[in-house]
Amino acid sequence: MPVAIDRRHSVPPQVYELLRERIQIAELKPGESINERRLSEWLGVSRTPIREAIRKLAGDGLIDIVPNVGTSVALVDPKRVYEFCQIRISLEAAAAAEATKHFTSTIGRQLDQLIEEQDATIDAGDAVRNIKVDTEFHQLIHRTSRFTTMADFLQRVMGEIVRARHLSIKLPGRLREPIKEHKAIVAGLRSGNPATAAEAMRTHLDRSITSIMQVMKTNPAFLVVDG
């Protein structure tokens, strides 16, 4: 059944976002062949926006296009994921520090609500929702920082990191530790001290690297083989 496309808005960006999401949550799995006709039928659009989205996703490193061979979802490269995690730490620590300058009680309540929702996903065993809420938590801090250029860099970085986390159907082994770390980040933001907020973010993301790398190992068939 075709996915609903809002014809009141430009179609190509919607196709790109839909395909990007399906790749990130591993519904389109690493190594899987990309069939333009099936995607066209599924999305209810012509092949033109499909091809445009594929080219853009190839630029993001999420799709491999090999002339005279075919197009497929890119395998996950653990070395690149590790590098992206390190880049993410630097960017998000800076965003957390800057966000203290624009933090409000309303933003604090929104972050608290996201933490509560993420905690509930653990009880429900909903890994997909857990990762989505986690992403929303960090995105709210990005927006609060008002760093607009940083969002473009993080778009590329997070595409690989989120996809790596979804390679396992189970929740990350650390379970509720990220909840405590998120609370520490919010406390840092509330303190108004940029260094405190940045350190809380840096500690959280540094600890998450081990979990992410472990999750990837559960599906070695989806990974680039280290030659």
Number of helices: 9
Helix and strand run: HHHEEHHHHHH
CATH class of the largest domain: Mainly Alpha
Compute the number of structural domains. 2
User: Main β-sheet, in a few words?
Assistant: 2 strands, antiparallel
CATH topology of the largest domain: Four Helix Bundle (Hemerythrin (Met), subunit A)
CATH homology-level superfamily of the largest domain: GntR ligand-binding domain-like
Indicate the mean pLDDT. 90
C-alpha geometry: globular
Strand order of the largest sheet: 1-2
Low-confidence stretches: none
Q: State the secondary-structure class.
A: mainly alpha
Number of strands: 2
Ends apart, CA distance between termini: 41 Å
Helix content: 55-70%
Structure write-up:
By secondary structure, this protein is mainly alpha-helical. It folds into 2 domains: 11-73, Orthogonal Bundle (Arc Repressor Mutant, subunit A); 78-222, Up-down Bundle (Four Helix Bundle (Hemerythrin (Met), subunit A)), CATH 1.20.120. The chain contains 9 helices and 2 strands, in the order H-H-H-E-E-H-H-H-H-H-H. Strands 1-2 form a two-stranded antiparallel sheet. Helix 4 (78-99) crosses helix 6 (127-145). The longest helix is centred in the C-terminal third of the chain and has 23 residues, at 194-216. It is globular, with a radius of gyration of 18 Å. The N and C termini lie far apart (41 Å). The mean pLDDT is 90.
